Amino acid sequence: MVISKNIYLADDDWDDVEFFKDALNEITFGFHLTISSNGQELLDKLHNSCLLPDIIFIDLNMPIMDGFEALSLIKTDEVLNSIPTVIYSTSSNMNHITKAYELGASSYFKKPSDFKSLKNELEKVLLIDWKNFIQSIE
Q1: Can you tell me whether residue 22 is helix, strand or coil?
Q2: Is the pLDDT of residue 118 over 70?
Q3: What CATH number should be reported for the domain whose range is 6-132?
Q4: Residue 123 in contact with residue 103, Cβ under 8 Å?
Q5: Which pLDDT value is given to residue 2?
Q6: Is residue 26 very low, low, confident or very high in pLDDT (cuts 50, 70, 90)?
Q7: pTM of the predicted model, to two decimals?
Q8: Is 20:118 a contact under the CB 8 Å cutoff?
C-alpha cells in the first residue's frame, strides 16, 4: 500500500482518467487527485494551488497545450521544476520517449491496456522516493 499522495493528472481522455482513478483507489490510502484536461489547465492549477503536488502525470496528446509543452514549462519554472513529472501516454515512439526525458521527465510509461498492469505501474512509480532518486542521479 502507498501512503497518501497529492497527485495531479493532465489527460483529456475521460475513460483513461477513470481507469487511472480506479487504479489509485486500489493502491493508495487517502490520495487527492487534481485533474486537468490539457497542459494549460494543468499549469493554471499548479500556479494557483496553495499545496503543490507530490507527483504530476501528463499525457502527451492533449488539446490547447500538449504534454511536451506543459512538461517544458514545468521544468523551467523555479517553483515547479523539482516536482516529479511522469509522462503517461499511449505513445511508445522512441522519439517521444527521448524528447520527454530531454525535457526533464522523471519517468515515462505507456498507458497499459489492462487494469492490473496499470495498477502495477502506478504502484511502482508512487513508491519511488523521488527526492533521493533524483539526488542520486545528479
Answers
A1: helix
A2: yes
A3: 3.40.50.2300
A4: no
A5: 55
A6: confident
A7: 0.90
A8: yes
Cα(24)–Cα(33) distance, integer angstroms = 9
| Grid cell in block for residue 109 | 510509461
Write out pLDDT tens, residues 50-87.
889 999 999 998 999 999 999 999 999 999 999 999 99
Angle (deg, nearest 10), helices 14-27 and 115-127: 60
Give the 3-state secondary structure of 40-62.
Answer: HHHHHHHHHCCCCCCEEEECCCC
Cα-Cα-Cα-Cα dihedral sign, residues 101, 106, 112, 117? positive
Give residue limits of the domains in the chain: 6-132
Separation of alpha carbons 47 and 22, rounded Å: 27
